[in-house]
């Protein structure tokens, strides 16, 4: 109850206070911040995926601005020789307003990344977006088979079937490319697993399907039992190192991250930045009120 109360109050806190917590998990507001953090991670042998914060826009003018910002980001990052790729959220390009306009914006961004031989990850958002985002991936992979990937959330009950259905566009030459994560959005029990052990079980079930069928997978987790389970599956199916990677959020479990890198596995860190950091931080807290106690500590004991 306390955590939910704090979560509901946080949007009304002064931004400077919220930033004390958020700066541990967000690179900053500018491309320069993203470059600085990315270079620090690259120096540790870690790849990055860079995301401009923003989602669930209200008008298509925002979609156009977001597209231009991504195109500028890609040009800038490539000039800086960052070892990384890009992630984006379709709702920041108008997915829930006009699907075709959204597709065209994202297609232009993927084409820009492809011109550099780089890659765009389509983030998976909440359940009303799932089927539309799978369709976006299908359309884009047909044209850019090496330059686009998708995210799947293991807590959704539909995920394994979705992965199975998408095998019709998978080839050895151009394997399907996914990030597999647990999922953060609050979804009803009818469509999502709720228990920790249950979600972990299905994460590893989905991961096993992906690895044994030759998909490329970003194993996105900070959970030790899942990481240990992933190690076993990689060994079981003798998966080559160029067919998977581990992924983590910026600022989260750096010691665990280092242990994975030290074992010789590829690691990629999600680096979010942008002026929408406040909305991102407060929305994520509402989705996961248990974070409230950590924020209180950050605000009053670590600031």
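^ structure tokens above, recovered residues below v
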């Amino acid at each position: 109850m306390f955590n939910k109360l704090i979560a509901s109050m946080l949007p009304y806190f002064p931004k400077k206070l919220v930033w004390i917590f958020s700066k541990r998990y967000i690179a900053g507001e500018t491309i320069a911040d993203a470059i600085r953090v990315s270079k620090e991670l690259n120096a540790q042998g870690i790849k990055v995926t860079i995301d401009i914060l923003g989602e669930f826009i209200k008008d298509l003018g925002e979609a156009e601005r977001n597209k231009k910002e991504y195109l500028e980001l890609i040009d800038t990052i490539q000039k800086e020789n960052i070892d990384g790729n890009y992630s984006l959220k379709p709702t920041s390009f108008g997915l829930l307003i006009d699907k075709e306009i959204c597709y065209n914006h994202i297609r232009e961004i993927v084409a820009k990344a492809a011109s550099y031989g780089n890659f765009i990850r389509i983030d998976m958002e909440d359940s009303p977006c799932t089927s539309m985002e799978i369709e976006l991936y299908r359309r884009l992979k047909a044209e850019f088979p090496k330059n686009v990937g998708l995210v799947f959330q293991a807590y959704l009950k539909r995920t394994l079937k979705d992965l199975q259905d998408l095998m019709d566009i998978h080839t050895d030459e151009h394997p399907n490319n996914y990030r597999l994560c647990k999922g953060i959005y609050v979804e009803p029990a009818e469509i999502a697993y709720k228990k920790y052990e249950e979600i972990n079980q299905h994460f590893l079930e989905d991961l096993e399907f992906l690895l044994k069928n030759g998909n490329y997978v970003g194993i996105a987790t900070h959970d030790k039992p899942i990481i240990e389970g992933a190690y076993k599956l990689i060994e079981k199916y003798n998966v080559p190192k160029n067919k998977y990677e581990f992924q983590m959020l910026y600022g989260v479990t750096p010691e665990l991250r280092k242990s994975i890198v030290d074992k010789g596995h590829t690691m990629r860190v999600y680096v979010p930045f942008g002026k929408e950091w406040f909305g991102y931080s407060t929305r994520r807290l509402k989705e996961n009120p248990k974070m409230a106690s950590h924020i209180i500590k950050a605000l009053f004991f670590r600031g």
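The chain is about 50% helix and 15% strand.
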